[in-house]
Amino acid sequence: MLYALKIASRYLTASKAQTALLVLGVAVGVFIFIFMSALIGGLAEFILSRTAGDISHVTIEAEEAKPALLISPEGTVLLVQEKDAETAQLREATSFVPLLEALPEVKAVSPQISGAGFVRRGGQVAQVSVTGLEAGRESVILDLDGYMVEGSARLQAGAVLLGRTLVDDLGLALGQTLVLQSSEGVEVALTLTGIYQIGTGGGPDRRMAYVSLPTARTLFAMPQGVSRIEIKLYDLYAADAVTLRVEGLTGLPAKSWTEDGAQLLEALRAQAQTGYFLKTFAMITIIIGVASALLLSTYRRRPEIGIMRAMGASRLFVVGVFVTQGALIGVMGGLSGAVIGYLALLPFPTRDAFRSGTLPIDITQGSYGLAVTLTVIGAILASILPARAAARVDPVTAIGQ
Amino acid sequence: MSLLTVTDLVKTFGEGDTATRVLRGLSLTLEKGQMAALLGPSGSGKSTLLTILGTLMQPTSGGHVMLDVDLTRATDAELTQFRNRHIGFVFQFHNLLPDFTALENVVFPTAIREGRETAAARTRGAHLLTRMGLAERINYPSTNLSGGQKQRVAVARALMNAPELVLADEPTGNLDRASALQVMDLIGQINREEGTTFLISTHDEKIAATCPRQLVVGDGLVTG
Fold first, then answer.
1. Residue B89 sits at the chain A interface (C-beta within 8 Å)
2. CA angle, corner A314, sides to B27 and B93, nearest 5?
3. How confident is the model at residue A360 (pLDDT cuts 50, 70, 90)?
4. Residue B189 lies in domain
5. Residue B57 is nearest to which of A10, A307, A396, comparing CB atoms?
6. Is the ipTM of this complex over 0.90?
7. Domain count, chain B
């Protein structure tokens, strides 16, 4: 088909302005495809990094013992046993940490002790959720390092990290001492070594306190074991499968983030589907554009097609000429669109530099190869109808035109 | 020695009341190496006969044998291949490919057969163009050539695959007298030197007189 290629390229170069317009049209379609891919991908990345990116993807958590009930024969609750104040714990779970870390899907593992408590500073008291983290693993689940506004995320014995809002509420400053009292009634004097700011005021910035694992053991009277193990994965969409695997490996109850994040997942899927629709429309536009341009070319070149057929060109050869033309338009338009798309996306910040208020476009998710491949395939498909029309040209009537 | 034979050739266009019978049982034999003129008024069926002999159209009925091949039974693909190898065409309006040079037009029939423009094809194409007196126009875009030059390029293209039969439909009809005689002179030379058979449709009796044999088409039949 070398000769068909020569004729096809000659036809394209013979009408340079028309070809340039056609290629530009295809390139614009490809650019839209790439832009939408980068925007939808970047937006998903941004939302995930701000939500599921900072949470545990799989959590092994001790089940709280339910309070015993005394029920009458009529079904009325007569007596509720007071709940055991002791924090639920996984006594042997820490031995599974190396096993979990060895799983290829697992990015990080964080054994934790958590419970409720009160922060006291002078006459002021605030209720907090206390989390004990292992030294060196402070930022493997929630990126505490990234959220620090003062001090360090490094947790040593006797240190505590508090959120900006709580610190302001209590009138604390870095290096000052405060008292943390656990729900077990244990009091520990701690030094504020770090202040973080995750949100814009409420939530974790007001209600969380991070201490070292040994401190948490003291606070919650838990000399061994942990209350939960949080696991972060490389691919958070693999959480459900990994959860089953973790349960199988450890025999402990595990929970995937998707159980609580179903709405987020649904929103992300809906967003991805919107992207697919837009990209499909871009492709359909390309196909219609190429098909109509080639149909016009076929009509304009009817006498030439007639001559070719009279000279002994087979119908297949004629089809080859026009399909090759379509493929060349696809390749040129696809590559041009990919280059234009890449250059247009360059000024946007990288995924690591996404900030609130900016358009979260991820240049690495432009699907450049896919865009070019689909465009070439689309252009070839678009050229089939005109090519078949060309092959059906009757040489006798065409030459007579 | 017979090159082609058509017997009782009938060609009807349309159906029912609107049917027009252009050829009415025409029979004809062309010998190898003959140069024949096909005369007749407009609408007599000259072009239809050439189209059928050129395998671009099948007859409604009748026999058509060339080089011992029954062409009425051949498929479209077989006819296309046969046409490429054994038949050359010269049209009244040259019908060159406008986006190609003179040489590219000439090598076209060989290139579509071989799938590419070979060096051997280009050499033969250049030789044919030189013979047509167009040595200095080989790489000219075909659109930059004069009418006579274009027609000589068309003759060279018809000869490219060394066909046994060249069908020329009013090849000089669009040329001035000098160019017309020049083209006919070249056709005569090739007929004599290479033994190529020519069937030339023309209105011009002076052009027809340059051919040793004259056939006259009238009422859908041929005489001569």
1. yes
2. 65
3. confident
4. 2-96+151-223
5. A396
6. no
7. 1
